[in-house]
Design a protein that fits this description.
59% of the residues lie in helices and 2% in strands. By secondary structure, it is mainly α.
């Protein structure tokens, strides 16, 4: 019993240490199969998000692709002062999900995940699942509809309900790109999901 407890504690420590060092973006972000084979823990996190919040894995991954290209420390580019001097950033968006400070704080309060970090893939995936669930409850958006999920994600649920995206053709174009990406990821995942590694027993702890 003591040996088993020690092993579990060791694995927990190693997991904590590894999660503190964000990995570089996957080598092939165009392929969901390649992403999950390079980072199996992301697949397991995506599975948990799907089970918990009901957002399909391809929708989740298409949103992350669009927001950060799977860069853990992604931030909006700085604005320019006098067209040449780097200035402030337009928003506080950060991490895989590009969640802004205020919405991230709301997520942590609502879920009780006090120590969740935007540069941790599992936390970012859970955030997007939580947000899609909020959009479904408040605006009736299907969690499987990548186009609508992304519009609400970008405009805010209230903004989506007011139709603020209708006069933003560039945003509609981007949301269509997310929908196409979701379709591609969905087809890819159907071909490789059975060959992806199963989550090890110790990670459940």
């Amino acid at each position: 019993m003591k040996l088993k407890t020690s092993i579990l504690l060791l694995f927990a420590l190693l997991t904590a240490l590894l999660s503190g060092c964000a990995p570089p973006p996957p080598n092939h972000v165009e392929s969901i199969c390649s992403i999950f084979k390079q980072y199996p823990t992301w697949y397991w996190d995506a599975q948990k998000t799907q089970k918990k919040w009901g957002i399909p894995i391809p929708v989740l991954m298409a949103v992350i692709y669009q927001e950060s290209r799977f860069n853990a420390t992604a931030k909006p580019p700085r604005q320019k002062l006098l067209w040449i001097i780097p200035w402030t950033r337009p928003t506080s968006a950060y991490g895989y999900s590009q969640a802004i400070d205020q919405t991230w704080k709301h997520y942590k309060r609502d879920t009780g995940k006090t120590f969740a970090s935007r540069d941790a893939f599992g936390a970012a995936a859970d955030f997007i699942g939580w947000y899609a669930n909020q959009a479904h409850r408040r605006a009736g958006i299907s969690k499987a509809n990548a186009y609508q999920v992304y519009l609400a994600y970008h405009e805010g649920i209230g903004g989506y309900m007011r139709g603020t995206y209708r006069n933003k053709q560039w945003l509609i174009h981007v949301a269509n790109k997310v929908a196409v990406r979701e379709w591609i990821y969905k087809k890819q995942l159907l071909l490789c999901q059975s060959s992806l590694p199963k989550e090890p027993w110790w990670r459940v702890w």
